[in-house]
Amino acid sequence: METLVLLLFVFVLAAFLGFELIQKVPSQLHTPLMSGSNAISGITVVGALIAAGVGADHGALGKWLGFAAIVLAMINVVGGYLVTDRMLGMFKGK
To answer: CB neighbours of 49 closer than 8 A, spacing ≥ 6?
Structure first.
């Protein structure tokens, strides 16, 4: 139970900190920073695969939370690359 409370605290703290940091970034830097964070999101996918318990017994809740983490991380990765591709397309010659 203590571990769950600690993990929940870390999650809420990370969400609050991330929200505050994104608000402080100027709009001109937001897209380049987002494209740079795709590597971190790739690491998140690997962590989510481990959390899903490929070959391990983490229980049904752990597997479902791991699956949800994989889906959300992949949405973040694909969305980041699409936005980066669109941004780079604006700089191509006609």
So the answer is: 66, 70
The token pair that represents 5 in the structure block: 């409370």
- The pTM assigned to this predicted structure is 0.58
> For residue 88, how many C-alpha atoms fall within 13 Å in the half-sphere facing its CB?
9
User: pLDDT (tens digit, 9 = 90+) per residue, 49-94?
Assistant: 877 776 566 677 777 888 888 898 888 888 878 877 787 777 776 6
35 Cβ partners below 8 Å, 6+ apart? 80, 81, 83, 84, 87
Query: Got the DSSP string for 36-69?
Result: HTHHHHHHHHHHHHHHHTTTS--HHHHHHHHHHH
pLDDT of residue 18: 81
Output b/e per residue, 45-84; b: 16+ Cβ within 10 A.
beebeebbeeeeeeeeeebebbeebbeebeebbeebeeeb
